[in-house]
Each structure stands twice: as C-alpha cells, then as structure tokens.
Amino acid sequence: MIEVNKNGEVWVFAEQQAGKLTDVPLELLSKARELADILGVKVAGVLLGEGLDELAQKLIHHGADKVYSVDNAKLSHYQTASYTKVICDLIKEYKPQICLFGASHVGRDLAPTVASKMKCGLTADCTDLQIGTHEDKKEKTTHENLMYQIRPAFGGNIIATIVNPTRWPQMATVREGVMPMSECDTKRTGEVIKITEEISDDLLPVTVNDMHREGKTVDLKAARVIVAGGAGVGSKENFDKLKELAHVLGGTIAGSRAAVDLGYVESDYQVGQTGTTVRPALYIAVGISGAIQHIAGMQESAKIIAINNDPEADIFSVAHYGIVGDMNEIVPMLIKSVHSGLNVKTTH
Question: Same structural domain for residues 39 and 66?
Fold first, then answer.
C-alpha cells in the first residue's frame, strides 16, 4: 500500500501481444481521460515488452499524456512475477491514484497479484467508472473525488458501487468492449518515460519457445447488425432461422449465455457480461429473457428490437421496439419482409 496521493495520475495498463496493442487499453484510455479531466490530473499508459516506441506513440494518440515504457527482452512474453515486480516498482515510485486493467486473461491474472502486493483493493469486471463523494458514517468523514467502481453483483441481481477511500491506488479491471474506444489523434503529443528495470531470471520460471494464438471465429464488436437468440429459441435447429435473418440483414448471429450453455451456438458468439460487449447499429434479441448479465453486454446498441412470447420479459425494458409473439411465426415474417424490400424494383 502507498500513501493516498490526491494528485496522482490515472494509469492504464497497456496490454500488448506479439508487439501489438490489444483493444482494451485503447478503450480504457477514453474512460481514463474522462476521470483524469474531472480530477485535474494526467493520464499515463504503462507499457511493458520489447520494441515499444511505436506502441507508446499510439497510446499518446489515443489520449495518454505520458507513457511509462519498460523495454526489455525479458518482458516480451507475459509472465506473472516479472510483470508484477515491474508494475509494483513503478507504483511505488510514481504513486498513481487510479490503476485500470483490462479484464483479459492477462489482466485477470496481473491485477489481483499487483493489488495483493500493494495491499490495496481491486474491483473486478466493472461495467462503469465514475468520480464521486463517499461519506463514511461510522468514521464521520467525507472522502471526495473517489473512483466509483460499478459492477453487477449477487448473480447480477443488483448493481454494486464500490469505493476504496484509504488503500490506494484504486484499482479495477474492465471488460473489453464496455468502454467506447478513444479516438486516434495523430497530432497529440506526450511524454515517453523510458524505464530501465533489472529482471532477475528467478522471475522467469517459464521459457517460451513458441506461441500460437487461435483467433476467434467471429468479431462481434465489429458487427453492425446482430441477431441474438436465447433459451427461448428452443433448439439449435431454430437458430438456423436466426442465421437466415442475420444473413439477409447483412449481420451476424449471437447468443445469450443460456443459449451457449444449451449448445444452440458456440461460445465465441456469446454476448453479455461473461461474453462480448457489443454496440451495433441494430440488435435483435429473440427469445432472450433479459438477465442483467446479458443486458450489460448489449444495452448501448443504437436500436434494440426484442421478440419474446412473454410480455413481462425484462428485455423489453431496454428495447426500443418490442414484439410479443412466437418467434417461429415472427422471424419468417421478418425474413420475408426484408426479402420483399430487397426485391423492390424502381422505374425512372
């Protein structure tokens, strides 16, 4: 634990893989910029790896005021102990007030390890971050400008707001896709602070000879139109109707966790808190009840159409348009309607 530094920076761990930044630090920079502007402090990226000059500039173009760059061949592949030591040393030296990590496989391993070493709190899988005031009635004290760490809790039945008034830095992990990606401005300038760090071989218990990453079969985040099905679709065969609707609309299919668990659709297509967060122009939810975990992953869609035979389904609370009825009747009608629209001929 370090002392509370009210003027400390807002940090984003800039995860990179094979010399390329992942999307999540660029998304976190947009929220970090918002928080830092309220607090009146700077945003910094924390970048570990090898050959980082180009990546450091990219972080600056996406909103970082400065980048702490630790360029070392021993950091080219992520290992828990080495990354933890470097980040903890940086925290002790520069004393940030907020540290944000992506809730990736790396972030979920690294962030709690750093928090444990620093003896501070960590809130995992946040869906929002805000700045506010906390009144401690027991201690009769008021803490201003704390980071509200907001996330679903108790199986998604409530939304919890968690604060960390005394044990800093305030730390949180945020799922990929939850925050909109910051815009790239190549005219932005910033400071790159190059750090020399000695990495003991004791911190590298694993030797990485080769690495193979299997890409996802679909990029839901890039889809403009998504037709998603839930348990109410009823069968894997019924999902074929959703695929046809998605095809005629030029989109892709997706599913709720319930649909994935039932084997209706593969896990790469899952939308929600434990899947992918999406913001398409059009999201059609078919047979999805509307559990808060699913809503958290799609409620920022520009237009939401819900189809469900239960008029009380929670999904209607976030839908712009709702259709109550049997999907086996409604979806074929939509497909036919779209086909009719595509086949309209005009004369001049």
Answer: yes
Burial of 205 (0-12, 13-18, 19+ CB in 10 A): exposed
Question: d(Cα 87, Cα 84) in Å, to the nearest integer?
Answer: 5
**Residue 32 identity:** A
C-beta of residue 226 within 8 angstroms of C-beta of residue 246: yes
Give the pLDDT band (50/70/90) at residue 217: low
What pTM, to 2 d.p., does this model score?
A: 0.77
Report the C-alpha gap between 203 and 68 in whole angstroms. Answer: 21
Annotate 42-70 with b (16+ C-beta within 10 A) or e (fewer). bbbbbbbbeebeebbbbbbbbbbbbbbbb
State which of 203, 231, 260 marks the end of a domain.
Answer: 203
Domain assignment of residue 210, yes or no: no
For residue 315, what are the domain limits? 220-342
pLDDT of 11-37, one tens digit each?
A: 999 999 888 898 899 999 999 999 999
